[in-house]
Amino acid sequence: MTHIAELTHGLAELKLDLTQEQIARLESYLALLAKWNQTYNLTAVREEERMVSYHLLDSLTLVPQLAGGTRLLDVGSGGGMPGIPAAIARPDLQVVLLDSNHKKTTFLRQAVIELKLDNVEVVTNRVEAYQPEQKFDRITSRAFAELAEFVKLTRHLLAPGGQYVAMKGVYPYEEIAMLPEGFGVAEVVPLTVPGLDAERHLVRIVAQ
């Protein structure tokens, strides 16, 4: 199966109705990621064909979980997952990609320019030092830290009534048990990634 066929098939399984332009941007992002990964070590997944399920489709499982959100912060964005695929799928969403690694944010800025993503801002900073003018109603991460650490480092960035939408592998029982006081789990959503035989869960955390 070609990349575009796998991506199109996966989008149908996820029930995401994207335009041809959006699909083309996802493909362009994949090509950029594969090209820059040779030098910048953005992801351990080297084969482009595996990147479709591991990165694009995995990131896109977040999109249906962002309903009601207008500002998304992707903490420790790395190569842009899940922020860039989410921004492509939801052009109405304002997305900030935050990472302290200069090489990675250099790639992210180039990707934003080449993909013409007007709804994306790239910030090079440590999360605990980041002080934006406007807070976020949705904060996500894919491989940044355990849930307790994630919440502690970003609590100053969550808008009133906002939610964490943390992407995890297996059901994180122990991590949930360690959440700091004042925060609780609203729900844990099992996610199915087309073409990926691995457990995935989204943990929705809210201030109590």
Describe the structure in your own words.
The protein has helices spanning 3-13, 20-40, 48-60, 83-89, 102-114, 147-154, 173-177; strands at 71-75, 94-99, 120-124, 136-140, 158-168, 183-191, 200-207. 38% of the residues lie in helices and 24% in strands. A 7-stranded mixed sheet has the order 3-2-1-4-5-7-6, with helices on both faces. With 208 residues, the protein is α/β, with parallel strands linked by helices. α1 packs parallel to α3 (48-60) and α3 crosses α4. It is built from 7 helices and 7 strands; from the N terminus they run αααβαβαββαβαββ.
Summarize the structure.
By secondary structure, this protein is an alpha/beta fold.
Question: Layout of helices and strands, plus pairs?
Answer:
Elements: H1 3-13, H2 20-40, H3 48-60, E1 71-75, H4 83-89, E2 94-99, H5 102-114, E3 120-124, E4 136-140, H6 147-154, E5 158-168, H7 173-177, E6 183-191, E7 200-207
Parallel strand pairs: 1-2, 1-4, 2-3, 4-5
Antiparallel strand pairs: 5-7, 6-7
Helix pairs in contact: 1-3, 2-3, 2-4, 2-5, 3-4
Main location: cytoplasm
GO molecular function: rRNA (guanine-N7-)-methyltransferase activity
Enzyme class: transferase
